[in-house]
Design a protein that fits this description.
Helices cover 47% and strands 14% of the residues. Strands 1-2-3 form a three-stranded parallel sheet.
């Protein structure tokens, strides 16, 4: 089985991202398919906070803008791993996500205690 066949099979079994066009807007249906494949391949939306990547982003942001805390707006937050890591570092974060299933995962991360704050909005 090719890697992309396995990812597609996983995507349909796990269904991590609902169809964005489910409300009748079929022009947006490709969005959910794209992000579901991306998540199946990389775990980017449902991955762990312990993988190091979100903490690397926190360090990069703090290096660029100086010590915080800061008010941060993350557009296209996905599963919220970076937003949660920023909130853990004491920043106040608003995470905006287009895909409802990814936003639910982000909300689950937002529901945990943080040094800063994390609010999730679905658009």
């Amino acid at each position: 089985m090719r890697h992309d066949d396995h990812a597609t099979e996983h995507m349909h079994q796990a269904d991590p991202i609902q169809r964005a066009g489910a409300d009748g807007d079929e022009s947006m249906g490709w969005v959910a398919d794209f992000y579901a494949k991306q998540d199946a391949w990389s775990g980017v939306y449902t991955g762990s906070l312990a993988d190091g990547n979100p903490q690397d982003r926190v360090r990069a942001i703090e290096r660029l803008v100086g010590p915080g805390p800061h008010h941060i707006l993350e557009l296209g937050a996905g599963g919220g791993q970076t937003a949660a890591a920023l909130a853990d570092a004491g920043h106040d974060v608003v995470a905006v996500e287009l895909v409802p299933a990814a936003a639910r995962y982000a909300q689950a991360l937002a529901d945990r205690p943080h040094q800063g704050s994390l609010a999730v909005n679905v658009q």
